[in-house]
Request: fold
Amino acid sequence: MAFSFSETDVERMASVFGVDPVQDGTVTRFELTHSESGRRLTVELTRIRDLPDTLATEEPLYLVSVYAPSSFLQLQGCTGFIASQELGEVIFFARQGGVTNGLVIEREAACSLYANVANRMLSTDFTQLPSELVMSSVALSMSETLFSDFNGS
Reply:
């Protein structure tokens, strides 16, 4: 699925995060801190163009990486995002093969990863789900509006 971060997209993210982005070639970096909790993390958007022939695509591949003091997370093949000023978070999505993965980055330097959530879970009645599945399904259900081919499969 062709996707590319525009300059306007980066500006929207910067507005939600409340920090200026740092551009370094094909990498856009956001340094987030939350002094009250002591949390800090770095979010990087990386455009990968030079893939081996066996992995090559017509469109660049986007990685969203999160560096934190005790963890590293990476969402490969980002296919969209939603930036919410009201919620103070940016949710990055990677959707392929009937599943959606999401990386939620909060303005207060927190993040959550939801992986391999079946697309059919995103449009189900959340009150019917086991409690362990509700958070991921609700968070990633926002991706339905991004994809014109969404059919719950």
Notes: Confidence is low (pLDDT under 50) at residues 147-153.
